[in-house]
Amino acid sequence: MSEQNSPVQVDSLPRQAIQTNPSHTANPVLLTTQTDSRDKWSKKVDFLLSVIGFAVDLGNVWRFPYICYQNGGGAFLIPYTLMAIFGGVPLFYMELALGQFHRTGAISIWKRICPIFKGIGFAICIIALYVSFYYNTIIAWALYYFYSSFTGTLPWTSCDNPWNTPNCTNYFGKSNVTWTTFSKSPAEEFYMRKVLEIQKSSGLYDVGGIRWQLLLCLFLLFTIVYFSLWKGVKTSGKVVWVTATLPYIVLLILLVRGATLPGAWRGIVFYLRPDWEKLMSTAVWVDAAAQIFFSLGPGFGVLLALASYNHFNNNCYRDAIVTSVVNCLTSFLSGFVIFTVLGYMAEMRDVEVEDVAKDKGPSLLFITYPEAIANMVGSTFFAIIFFLMMITLGLDSTFGGLEAVITAVMDEYPHILAKQRELFVLGLITICFLGSLTTLTHGGAYVVKLLEEFGAGCSILAVVLLEAIAVSWFYGIQRFCDDVKAMLGFTPGTFWKVCWVAISPAFLAFIIVSSLLDQPLLMLFDYRYPEWSISVGYLIGASSFICIPFYMVYKLVWTPGSLKQVRDECHASQSCVGQILWEPVFGAAHFERLERGQVFNRPAGSGSFVEKFCSSPSDCVHVAIISRQMNWF
Which residues fall in a coiled-coil region (predicted)? Predict the structure, then answer.
């Protein structure tokens, strides 16, 4: 619709108002401006650091190096790069653009995209809660290590402690020490018998009592999280200046130190040595796809939430490219940090690097690396900065995950929560803290593993798949591209359109099917999970995803008329297409609907079109919308 058809001049709207285009008449799109009441990032750097802090987490340090050497070393970088280009980055870009354009959270955004898919928003919030139940416990372990590091001799250096067993074997600085299959390093026994006290639990049947030391650590962490989030992006945007930048300083220090250790070259060679035959294995490509997806983090609602506080004309395309590249390079850099130390340990044990590098996940961070640190010159200093890095990496991701829930719920129920953010955040933090209590028991590591496997596994993949389909196929790829053009001034190229419509959904479907077909036995510390616990895990995963079909059924049942009737009526009356300009006039709200050059006036108050988008008059000041509004689709 051209500018002259509008009774309100475009120049009278805020700077972020939409510049309409005559060429868009046949294919109108939803265009909204920033509202005065919504928070905005104080600086562009605050947003970038928040996104980088969320995307770069503990998984970049422990998962990527392990996945890389397991799947062909340097050869793995080929499928990893391809999966990033055709799958991860397009989805990352899509979420940033959606959040910035619609300026709302993961639940209410579906009112503007495709209402029948609104259950996706609720599923995202439930998944975020499950993640918070176990992820923050891992950070609490790091905080316990951080506190334990403030000593002249690190407690996991020797076998002379009360928690050690006869199997404890300390080979550093000693000769003629035989390492057997029963041998346990001091670092391993400190982690299992001192930090976790897992010997007091026989498994999920008997998880034992709560470790009060870990309880205090978790309470302190959630206190930090609360005071970082309670005022919104104004406070969290300042905190990330420390939590997002400190890990890079520490990584560089540890890289320099690791490169000077004897045997470091063995680790680097093992890390990057290409095994081209591995590229013929489907499992390698599945691992590459899963790694880039979980690393960049589309689908968790975080990118939607963070981008919703951007200025309307912010270049989210450039942001997506920059943050994706930084994330991938960080993973690659972390591999050098880890494997220089693994090469050093292999040199000290007089074994092959692959025998040392068998640990993965938290064990790599809480057993293998601390063991190497304990035997370095200046071990106390390196232990302190290493675990401080882990804490900051974890906190950034926690900030993002919980901000996604906060933004989604507050945008969905602004009439209740608009002025109660501090109380709502306190309630959410309390729920997360209480939900984490089972992970703080003596057998809490078993619960962490169960939640890690099923809380955000195939369920989040399925959520993102439906999100990509809803945006590309139901909302319409052309309409979405018009939204991007309204913000950035240029239309995404053919490459992005093809990725959004076909390649990225296929990429996600590939991961889901492969994950469901390949279900290895769930084990931790030689403990095999019982069958009933696997069933519980599937129920946990289904409990979030089930929100999507439930909401679809609810929408179909409670919306008057059949699907065909509603669609026919919509197309016949052409009431789906038009421009909405609505502003409160001295408290008496009205809106004007422009349709084929005619102006229709109707008082707000009885389910008017604009009220489907604006929850309160204050949220609708200076809104310019060109939209298709359907009851279901």
Answer: none
* Host domain of residue 452: 44-172+179-558
Q: Which residues contact 502 (CB under 8 A, 6 or more apart)?
A: none
What is the distance between the alpha carbons of residues 257 and 266, in angstroms, rounded to a whole number? 15
- pLDDT, tens digit (0-9, with 9 covering 90-100), for 171-230: 765 666 666 677 788 888 899 899 998 888 888 888 888 999 999 999 999 999 999 888
CB atoms within 10 A of CB 506: 15
Residue 44's CB: how many other CB atoms inside 10 A?
Answer: 13
pLDDT attached to residue 98: 93
Would you say residue 583 lies in a domain? no
Q: Is 56 annotated as a binding residue?
A: yes
Q: What is the pLDDT of residue 38?
A: 76
Q: What tokens appear for 552 in the block?
A: 């679809």
53 is in an annotated binding site: yes
Tell me how many domains the chain contains.
1
Does residue 355 have a known ligand-binding role? no
Rounded to whole angstroms, how far apart are CA atoms 25 and 32?
Answer: 17
- CATH number for the domain spanning 133: value is 1.20.1740
Q: Is 295 annotated as a binding residue?
A: yes
Has 96 been labeled as part of a binding site?
A: no
Higher confidence at residue 443 or residue 597?
A: 443
- pLDDT, one tens digit per residue, over 260-311 is 888 888 888 888 887 788 788 777 887 888 888 888 888 888 899 899 898 8
Q: Is 327 annotated as a binding residue?
A: yes
Q: Which of 130, 118, 103 is nearest to 474 (CA)?
A: 118
Give the model's pLDDT for residue 612.
37
Residue 184 DSSP label:
B
Helix axes of 119-148 and 547-558: crossing angle, nearest 10 degrees: 150
Cα–Cα distance list, 159 to 184, 344, 374, 403, 529 (Å) = 10, 21, 13, 43, 30
Q: Which residue has the tokens 């279900």?
A: 519
Confirm whether 628 is domain-assigned: no
Q: State how far the Cα of 624 lies from the Cα of 621, in Å rounded to an integer.
A: 9
CA 401/CA 399 separation, integer angstroms: 6
pLDDT at position 495, please? Answer: 94
Residue 202: inside a domain: yes
Checking 208-214 for CB contacts under 8 A at 24+ apart, the result is 208/441, 208/442, 208/443, 209/441, 209/442, 210/437, 210/440, 210/441, 211/440, 211/441, 211/442, 211/444, 213/144, 214/137, 214/140, 214/141, 214/144, 214/440, 214/444
The pTM of this model reads 0.80
- Per cent of the chain over pLDDT 70 is 80
At residue 396 the predicted structure's pLDDT band, cuts being 50, 70 and 90, is: confident
55 is in an annotated binding site: yes
Residue 396 known to bind ligand? yes
Write out the two tokens for 27.
């294919």
- Give the largest Cα separation in the chain, rounded: 93
Find the DSSP H helices in 413-530: 414-417, 421-435, 444-454, 458-469, 477-488, 494-498, 504-517
Q: Which residue is it, tokens 């690393």? A: 295
